[in-house]
Amino acid sequence: MTCCRIMLILCFLPFFCDPIWSFAQLDLPPYVQQITPKPEIYYNGDKVTTPLQTLGDVDRDRRFGPPYDEKNSEDGSDDFRDRFNLNQRYLDRQRFQQDRRYQIELEKLRNLLVETDHRGSVECTNNVAAQWNFETNVNAFTQTEALNAQQRYVEYQRLVAEQSKSINKNLILDRKLYRQLMLQSEAGANALPLDTLDRYNRLINEMLYIYNGATICGYQQPFACNLRYIPDLKEIMAKSRDWDELQHTWLEYHRKAGREMRDGYEQLIDVMNEVAYVNNVTNAGEYWYLPYESGNFRQDVDIAWEQIRPLYDGLHAYVRRKLREYYGPERINRIAPLPSHILGNMYAQSWSNILDIIIPYPGKKLIDITPRMLEQRYTPLLMFQLAEEFFTSINMSAVGPEFYQNSIFEQPVDRRALCEPSAWDFCNRHDFRVKVCADINQKSMISVHHEMAHIQYFLQYRHLPKVFRNGANPAFHQAIGDAVGLSVSTPKHFQTLGLLQRSVDESSYDINYLFSMAIDKVAFLPFALALDNWRYDIFSGNANKHMMNCHYWNLREKYSGTKPPVLRSEKDFDPGAKYHVPANIPYIKLGSFLRLYSAL
Q1: Can you give the pTM of this predicted structure?
Q2: Among 10, 120, 270, 590, which one is least packed by beta carbons within 10 Å?
């Protein structure tokens, strides 16, 4: 019998040296570890107080069973069945203890995440409020307050990221907890050293300050020098058909808004590569597409674009012919790229403002609800109320009175404000706002519904932890807004609102309508593709930052077939005249809204 015992011990001896994973490896924050109870373990009726056993210890106990006790046998031999039953009972007890301890530690982790989410929401609310105050009242004081609030929030996010990184996520089988920890571990720019992070934030705020402060003198009006992009220059680009006035407006605005921030953007490129480095990403270009969680995102986008490109090429050729007829062959070459200043938009990203020149059937009535809106004395507030009714009619949430009290629907008359349309989540599950300087026209009507789609997204996901309330990827929010914009811009919906008379069913009428949608939505896609591919190339080093303006126009010509009205140089920085560049916000949403709309 003694020989058998020795052999049994030798068989199991290798397991003593086998390292077993344990839940104790899950590095909870210190204060959580300090309150970890020391469980009371009873063995053979005796109470033994020990530190918390790891799952590895429990697993090892399960392998060996209880210590052998010779007192169980009077003659030195045991009944095999009795020993098996005793061992099985011990195994069952250890499994129960193991599962119970795991669940206890998991519950502590859940409580920690709830606490982190609550505090994070408070910190986020304070930061968003400061950013709102700056963008709705641009001055040196609000800018300083916004920077300080942003720095405080960044410091908190940095602590949360470090704490989340210290937890061994491989031991967490709950997919929701795992995802939440992974998202909290992504520090982004907050992983930078504090001095570099402060530089990063200041660069962006300084460029936005330049963007918002850009003013030019009117064409042949040297003393009217307070024209801003919104509303003055935007309206000139949309309505003027004077080639020289459009060229003057385009050149002066790009000189003021773009050229002055070039030095700052070159510095931002270096800082963005530092952001990539501290997040273990090869370069800032790869980091730029990291949130899409696709290893082949650029290739996916190119494939999607190639599917749409034949339609765009047809539209481009048709529009070029129409513009050639309007401006003459001496200004529009029949095989050259289109000058970007005559397409009805400062960035040539939408051509809907020149419909009067390019519409296929000029004699047929085109959808335009603007006159009816003016006749019925529409206001920006009424437009948002109608947008809310649209969403509640499809069983979505109402926004509540707080939304109307706090939002901005028109350009303030007593202060400067950043007028780019935007929707705001104040991170407290009840305060949602929009900032829109709306005009009374069809385009603003659609834009209002677009922004309210963002608000609906906030409302539908407000019950979730903060890290789950963001868009599924950087393009998702915009795709939802554009899909809703397409839905409300149909003749049927305008008829429902009493803004459009019932029309005769004619193919020419339908073609005009579909064409107007295409030159607004499809024409946008190559602009977005060129802009974000340009940023990828600059951030990744594929293009020299000292030649970045030239590279920008090479991509614009490649994807959209457009060119600047005059020759440009590397003194210029034309991409900077687009808000999303100084704000460092991704822009691409290639085809996503079309897929969402087709699925509705």
Answers
A1: 0.72
A2: 10
